[in-house]
Specification:
The chain has 169 residues and is an alpha+beta fold. The chain contains 6 helices and 3 strands, in the order αββαβαααα.
């Protein structure tokens, strides 16, 4: 069956181009079956390229959950042989990497959405989107210090630095 985009808000006026065709794979990568729910962070190029020389990066947050497929349909013969699991996720695309509180709000919203089990009701996501657009989160690099990076990740910072230096040019 593969990945399917059921709904977008606001509605996309143009078809998803080659850069966005793999959004399902980015938002729901390999290995997600090992957890019942989680947040995934990814990035992708902007659809709107006003200046083709300046391609903007967009930042995505996906909050996914595993659902027993029997919630949607039931076949007693197949369910006795196979364990069917569906993955549903809510995805938010941001212009800036302002993940912080937005991630937590999306996670709580996804929990509420799955508790209600009415997957056709999407008004709460529209309200969340409108709220974010009225008061967009800000990403300010001046609040991120190298000292904090080293303090938080310690030895892994050096490993990351070495990997950056060793990458192919």
């Amino acid at each position: 069956m593969g990945h399917q985009i059921e709904y977008s808000y606001p509605l996309l006026n143009e078809p998803i181009d080659e850069y966005w065709s793999n959004i399902g794979i980015l938002a729901l990568p390999d290995g997600v079956h090992q957890r019942q729910h989680d947040l995934i962070y990814f990035h992708l190029p902007s659809i709107h390229h006003q200046d083709h020389n300046k391609k903007k990066t967009l930042f995505g947050i996906a909050s996914y959950r595993q659902i027993d497929a029997n919630v949607f349909f039931f076949c007693s013969f197949l369910s006795s042989i196979f364990f069917f699991v569906l993955f549903k996720l809510d995805c938010l695309i941001l212009r800036e990497p302002a993940y912080g509180n937005v991630s937590e709000e999306l996670k709580l919203l996804t929990e509420k959405y799955f508790e209600e089990k009415n997957f056709n009701e999407r008004k709460m996501f529209e309200e969340f989107f409108d709220k974010l657009n009225k008061n967009p989160p800000k990403f300010n690099l001046k609040y991120y210090f190298a000292r904090d990076l080293v303090y938080r990740y310690r030895r892994k910072t050096l490993i990351l630095f070495k990997l950056i230096l060793l990458q192919k040019k």
